[in-house]
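Run folding on both entries below.
>entry_1
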Amino acid sequence: MTGKMICKTIAIAAMLVAGGAQAQEVVRLGNLKFAHYGAVSYMKEIAPKCGIRIDEKIFAKGLDAMQAVIAGELDVATTASEAAISGRASGAPIFVVAGFAKGGARLVARPELNIKSVKDLKGKKVGVTRGAIQEVLLMAELQKHGLTADSAPGKDVQLIYLSYPDLNAALLGKNIDAMMQSEPQSSQAINKNFGAEVIKPYDTPIGEPVRTMVMTEKFYKEKRPVAEKFMRCFVEATKMFIDNKALAEKYVRETVFKGQITTDDFNDAMGNAAYTYDVTPEHIQVTTDIMLKTGVGKMAKPPVATEWVKTDLLSAAKKSLNVK
């Protein structure tokens, strides 16, 4: 091989390496540890074949992920809609680009208290995670049934604000009477016999809450080709979880929860939640209106959903993969 040919070969190899590096651009993703967030976690497993690499960071709650977005530490984050709405109301430069799950909430009470309805919560201590979609749903249910609530004693219901894991511990320890909890924690409480379902809180105008995927405006506008690859990866991972329940269960139980939840926990959790792709401006607007009405999030200027729900990337990704 001549020196000229060697130089040419090296140049081609360098171009291929550069092209590969460019193809594997990193997307910084914030996610939460719940059963119905599993398909989003699975994206990092198939990301290389999508032409990207996903750096996933796990947060305790959606508001924490939103803070990381605002700080410029993430390109994309998954959260319940209320954290996205609060973030946008606070001036966060984000767009809602997809809905990845729906449902995933349950009002659970101590079995011995025989609480059968929301009205039975009068005089009780009810645990909830502050600023979570469960708080929005709880306040909407209490308002619907004419009950007042506050974290200070004196109202019909005393709210006890705790993290998701601490809610289960408080119910088990009888420090609270009921909780509005996420999945799979609410299913675990029921399966371990220290909780009983009161209702699935989907009978308010919100219906089943849709969990939202948010993208920074900068990423959406300035890294369009990478954003397109990311969205196709999301649709592909979600379709795999919808079509292959065994894969979804194995990944969530073994990889996400490291064996901490049982098959029954997973099945019951996903019996009260569903993987999906879609979200509408109408759903986000209704949620915004109820947050305003119930005082959750305390927004000075509620965002108008049609101005920041952008599902064009999702529509293109679904079309390219023949997903309805």
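>entry_2
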Amino acid sequence: MRPLPHLPRTVHGVLGAFVTTLATVAALFVATPPAQADTTVCEQFGSAVVQGRYVVQNNRWGTGEPQCVTTTDTGFRVTRADGSVPTNGAPKSYPSAFNGCHYTNCSPGTNLPAQLAGISSAPSSISYGYVGDAVYNASYDIWLDPTPRTDGVNRTEIMIWFNKVGPIQPIGSQVGTATVGGRSWQVWSGNNGSNDVLSFVAPSAIGSWSFDVMDFVRQAVARGLAQNSWYLTSVQAGFEPWQNGTGLAVNSFSSTVNTGGGPGGPGGATACEVSYTTNVWQGGFTANVTVANTGSAPVDGWRLAFSLPSGQNLTSTWNASVSPSSGSVTASGLTHNGSISPGGSQAFGFQGTYSGVFAAPGGFSLNGTACATT
């Protein structure tokens, strides 16, 4: 957030049958790419790449005490967070994952900075892991600037507080309430001496959510804190800890910026349809999911978010990366099937366990837009 200054013939027959069986199984279950090794970063402003497209940064800018973050396949966790700072001042740090550019550190393949007037939507998804023995917020940082800068502090910072633990508050003062992305928020406004800050605070903790970042950007424009000629430079999600913080985690994070239309303008919505079929037995099930693009534009980097009913847990997946294994999950396309052409579809599946009465998921959304179901 802040500155980052080749037997006998019979045996041949047995082996042949065995190999054929293995090939059949492999055709049914398309393996997920091997998980990358976890990387622990303890340098003050050290960083690492996750999912091949996002940067995880330690960003310990407000304290001299040690802090470390360890990357996972889809996010990161705080593995050390020593010390504390007064709760009436700035936090210790901002360990986070981001899409875009932050102090000349740009995430792989990002299309940021991008001018607001050319962004049709900016879908993002997050799943947080919280702890109870720390003072912190769990928040997004969305950075805006009049120029396409990739270094330094931007003019306006939008914060989205998903959770607040302890006697802390946003910069400035509360200036009202607002409904953004279908949720109610307290709205705070102020300046930290370097940039304007517009904060949206959830009245109760949000564990996971898929939404359009542009909904919050439009709020900043409407309040005179940005203009459509300005640029979105980065979308970040993590934590601001004041005291402790070990164990805090971003379980999964995704961010895409779609260009080709103005904020709220044509091209902002993705038309989609989801087919969900299952094979269920006592305590277990498999599901096959087909997501169709019924719109006129391709969907690149598709991510399908949905909520598994309580008691369901995933044990294996194919043709997509799905995380976490329960609750609000997101399925993401792999290298070979990461795009859905207009009128086309992609299919994936998973196996899982359940307790109680089996039920189908609800609330399918493709890159932040709700889908019809069949």
